[in-house]
Amino acid sequence: MEKISFPFGRKELDIEIEKDQLQGVLVSKAHQFKAEKSELQIVKEALDNPINSQKLSELVKNKKEVVIISSDHTRPVPSHITMPLILEEIKKGSPEVEITILVATGFHRASTDEELRDKYGDDIVELVNIEMHDSRDQSQMVNLGKLPSGGNLLLNKKAVEADLLIAEGFIEPHFFAGFSGGRKSVLPGVASKTTVLANHCAEFIASANARTGNLEANPMHQDMLYAAEAAGLAFILNVVIDAEKKVINAFAGHREKAHLKGTEFVDSLAGVDALPADIVITSNGGYPLDQNVYQSVKGMTAAEATCKEDGVIIIAAECSDGHGGEEFYQTFRDAKSVQQIMDDILARGRKETVPDQWETQILARIMLKFKVIMITDPAKQDMIEEMGMEWAENLNYAVKKAKKILGKAKASITAIPDGVSVIVRQ
Q1: Pair (121, 147) in one structural domain
Q2: Are residues 201 and 135 in the same domain?
Q3: Catalytic residues
Q4: Which residue among 151, 227, 273, 325 has the highest number of C-beta atoms inside a 10 angstrom radius?
């Protein structure tokens, strides 16, 4: 037997799998990467040696207002480490400059005070002006014309009108943008609902180039790059983290050049070869990424890339915050069939995208090919079943249920402990 652990909320779930059934365990090398320096040293060295850019302390000179776009509570960016160093660098160049942290909620809800304190620490929350982006509030937006795709480019006015716009974030594989980080701080981070909907249209989500680990000819990435340039994003600090959410590398500087360096590093660690199996077990990397069903679709896409046709995907995600999107939830709850959901989405043009359609489209794509079993907080069982998935209370029960569905007592199994950290190459 081989024991394997899967992140689940702030803890782990364990299972023992018979070796003759286990095809293998797909793990990002980032999880074994041993950084030779402390997290603070890594981030400080990145800020001291920016890529294709002046130092932040130089860029901020003679500026009156700096806006820092910062990831929200759904992203495991270690802002308690990165933000103090960013603020220190800004103050070094311009001690009196006005600073605003603009939380890039994208299409998510606003962060709570508790979540902000957990993310930044009490001092920053109490001493620095922090504002929440609201994609649905059109009074916050300014019109910057059209995206390459033709969608209207409406971005947060505070960000666009800043004397200096910078962003902090992290880089990981992303299931349709290729990688997170960099330009994503602007689109969808501080974009209008209208702009997000245009970029996340059915046509782009269905593109074979809008996949994990791919930027080449990725239509979503191209829109995002354009938006970041139009916003005047002048400097980024993006980190790479391991399974414990510890910083193992950092990239600072030009919005595109620094991000590309970071994606090359992540790709070198995250790429794994598919190991086809009847059952694939994965997770969404634990808290904060597994707070809801919506976010957990990301982990499912890693399993999708290595699950055999008509196989079973098991995903462990606590979902302490529920479904994560009312329209997303209602679509599955009220649908006559998953195929009908997909047909309705694919019939919509770029200007007809509805909220959460992209996550719905990807989950529907997965559910049309595989049976999905979710392990969640027990209080979420009804919700999971209403959405057309199976629910299980633990990993052992989920595997038994999967074998019963397949009618195979000796079904093959591939494990992906952290589905959002790998790029599964087929």
Answers
A1: yes
A2: yes
A3: 108, 174
A4: 227
